[in-house]
């Protein structure tokens, strides 16, 4: 156990050992004895450690944490702590309607109450499926008691007929094959099922692998923890180490605010570019930062991250999957490559093990340069996000690592003759509208059309739907046109390789520029200047805005649950982390 022990009384002793108020102490204490805990355990000044359990039958990506928590508990006890496992609100990315991201802030709120209101001195945050990671880290940021994250680990690689099948990515690919009549429904289902061969989270570089990698890049997980596949023995072993380490962190009073500093966020942005991370990352990291009072916005993502090369060859930007990432060395090997090239901005940033990122990673060997490329031989140069602005929105993110080489040469990286691309807008109001109309030939969608999705942001959907990556109409796919530029105020699954322009803020539902767009408008996007504009006169914009106001604003679907209504009333935009605005002041 690293570091010095403090002599101070832990916060749990205010509940369990307060002789000045024996009545309350007895009330607090007795019920925790009823299943076998002893006064000796609760009153001897041992740290009481929560295990925030995000696994359940409803959350299969994180379900293996039910097993891993046993090893965490053994680690806590071995280091002289007492373990309290408790359930967290389930968030299942693929199973929750209308969208799992609606629940991120709900799980955040609930965990804040638990961490604040119960006698816990530290907490192990069990992370995995997309939104579980930010929800846990946001709550740890707000309450700021010692906290360590534990990834559940990715699933094993999926295989079908000798080819790697990656979570989500195979769905997007196979759906096109189904639309084109190349495979039937049963084969489609078999292919997709092959991508989920074991316990664990998505094995592609989707939002789950991204956020687990970034929790490690931020310093909140033990080195190497993010990438170990869920069923591997090392997963149980690092769970034990994580349990042991949180007890040490409580003795050292090592808190989230000591670790998740501005420097740590800049390291995470750089690592996100190098791994080809999800466009959901800026939403979640901006949110965690806001709950800590660290300044971070989408301009920082471009300024710090855009010039960083893509090193990790995982689907959807590359070929490989989670097991390969782990065998190559995971996050520490990526950090080591960046360190060698002088690209990791803050090697001195502290991590949960009490050592710096640089100390943890500098001597880690990259065991497979085909999976984790060195900076001298990147998969793509300048592969981070760009942040676009204009009369359509104040901020929208584009993931440049998935742009095709031809498109990149023509529109992004040609320094002499930068071209902007222009096209005719086809506007859809939410995913239902898109599905109902996309194949209608009367819309006249062709290869020069830009597809727009609006009404899909934090307020409009609500929670922000992953629907901006829109497949072209089947008649274009049959002609060999597999993608059209997609732009919208919703999100996109991290497992999709579509080079969309996403998370546009402010969204249509709160009167952003997208609400003024009409199908048939010309739109101009200049990636090098970072602009996106409807080509209409300023007078026309004024006229359309007045018309929108006269119509009572942009119409979005009714609330279906109390939480939808509550969140819509206080949620910030995707560019601002989609946080609950009143929650940010509690630091
Ligand atoms: Fe849960 Fe991807 S759906 S990790
Ligand atoms: Mg997703």
Describe the structure.
With 587 residues, the chain is α/β, with parallel strands linked by helices. It folds into 2 domains: 46-157 and 197-362, Response regulator (Rossmann fold, 3-Layer(aba) Sandwich); 385-551, 3-Layer(bba) Sandwich (Glucose Oxidase, domain 1), CATH 3.50.30.80. It has helices at residues 12-16, 22-33, 39-43, 65-78, 104-117, 132-143, 169-179, 185-194, 207-217, 233-252, 256-259, 262-275, 281-292, 298-305, 322-328, 330-340, 357-361, 405-413, 430-437, 474-478, 538-550, 562-568, and strands at residues 48-53, 82-87, 122-127, 147-151, 158-160, 163-165, 385-388, 395-399, 421-429, 449-454, 486-488, 501-505, 522-526, 531-534. The strands form 4 sheets. It has a 5-stranded mixed sheet. A 4-stranded parallel sheet has the order 2-1-3-4, with helices on both faces. The longest helix is centred in the middle third of the chain and has 20 residues, at 233-252. It is globular and about 75 Å long. The mean pLDDT is 95. Residues 61, 93-94, 129-130, 167, 201-202, 206, 208 line the site of FE2/S2 (inorganic) cluster. FE2/S2 (inorganic) cluster binds at residues 61, 93-94, 129-130, 167, 201-202, 206, 208. Belongs to the IlvD/Edd family. Residues 46-360 form the Dihydroxy-acid/6-phosphogluconate dehydratase N-terminal domain. GO terms for molecular function: hydro-lyase activity; iron-sulfur cluster binding; metal ion binding. InterPro entries: Dihydro-acid_dehy_C, DiOHA_6PGluconate_deHydtase_CS, ILV_EDD_C, ILV_EDD_N, IlvD/EDD_N, Sugar_Degrad_Dehydratases. Keywords: Iron, Iron-sulfur, Lyase, Metal-binding.
């Amino acid at each position: 156990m690293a570091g010095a022990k403090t002599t101070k009384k832990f916060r749990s002793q205010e509940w369990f050992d307060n002789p000045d108020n024996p009545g309350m102490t007895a009330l607090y204490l007795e019920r925790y004895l009823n299943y076998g805990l002893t006064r000796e355990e609760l009153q001897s000044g041992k740290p009481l450690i929560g295990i925030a359990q995000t696994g359940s039958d409803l959350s299969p990506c994180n379900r293996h944490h039910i097993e891993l928590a046993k090893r965490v508990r053994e680690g806590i006890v071995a280091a002289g702590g007492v373990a309290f496992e408790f359930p967290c609100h389930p968030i299942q990315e693929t199973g929750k309607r209308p969208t799992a991201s609606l629940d991120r802030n709900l799980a955040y709120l609930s965990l804040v109450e638990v961490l604040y209101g119960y006698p816990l001195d530290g907490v192990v945050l069990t992370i995995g499926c997309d939104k579980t990671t930010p929800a846990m880290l946001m709550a740890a940021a707000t309450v700021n008691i010692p906290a360590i994250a534990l990834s559940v680990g990715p699933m094993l690689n999926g295989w079908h007929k000798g080819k790697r099948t990656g979570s989500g990515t195979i769905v997007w690919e196979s759906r096109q094959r189904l639309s084109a009549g190349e495979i039937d429904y049963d084969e489609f289902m078999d292919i997709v099922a092959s991508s989920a061969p074991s316990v664990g989270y998505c094995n592609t570089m989707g939002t789950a692998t991204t956020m687990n990698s970034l929790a490690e890049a931020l310093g909140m997980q033990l080195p190497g923890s993010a990438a170990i596949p869920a069923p591997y023995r090392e997963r149980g072993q690092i769970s034990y180490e994580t349990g042991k380490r949180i007890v040490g962190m409580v003795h050292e009073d090592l808190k989230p605010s000591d670790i998740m500093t501005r420097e740590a966020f800049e390291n995470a942005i750089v690592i996100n570019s190098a791994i080809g991370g999800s466009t959901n990352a800026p939403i979640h990291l901006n949110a965690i930062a806001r709950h800590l009072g660290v300044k971070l916005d989408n301009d920082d993502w471009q300024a710090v991250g855009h010039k960083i090369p893509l090193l990790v060859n995982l689907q959807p930007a590359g070929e490989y999957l989670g097991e390969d990432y782990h065998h190559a060395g995971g996050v520490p090997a990526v950090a080591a490559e960046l360190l060698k090239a002088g690209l990791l901005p803050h090697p001195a940033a502290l991590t949960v093990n009490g050592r710096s990122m640089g100390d943890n990673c500098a001597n880690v060997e990259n065991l497979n340069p085909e999976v984790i490329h060195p900076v001298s031989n990147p998969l793509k140069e300048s592969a981070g996000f760009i942040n676009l602005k204009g009369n359509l929105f104040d901020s929208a993110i584009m993931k440049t690592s998935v742009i095709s080489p031809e498109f990149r040469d023509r529109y992004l990286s040609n320094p002499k003759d930068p071209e902007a691309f222009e096209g005719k807008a086809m506007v859809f109001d939410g995913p239902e509208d898109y599905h109902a109309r996309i194949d209608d030939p009367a819309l006249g969608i062709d290869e020069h059309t830009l597809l727009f999705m609006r009404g899909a942001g934090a307020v409009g959907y609500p929670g922000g739907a992953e629907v901006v990556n829109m497949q072209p109409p089947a008649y274009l796919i049959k002609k060999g046109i597999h993608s059209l530029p997609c732009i919208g105020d919703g999100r996109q699954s991290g497992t999709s390789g579509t080079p969309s322009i996403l998370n546009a803020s402010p969204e249509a539902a709160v009167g952003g520029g997208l609400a003024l767009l009409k199908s048939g408008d010309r739109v101009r996007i200049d990636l090098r200047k970072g602009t996106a504009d409807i080509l209409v006169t300023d007078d026309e914009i004024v006229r359309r805005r007045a018309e929108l106001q006269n119509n009572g604003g942009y119409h979005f679907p009714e609330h279906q649950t109390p939480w939808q209504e509550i969140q819509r009333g206080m949620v910030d935009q995707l560019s601002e982390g989609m946080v609950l605005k009143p929650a940010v002041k509690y630091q």
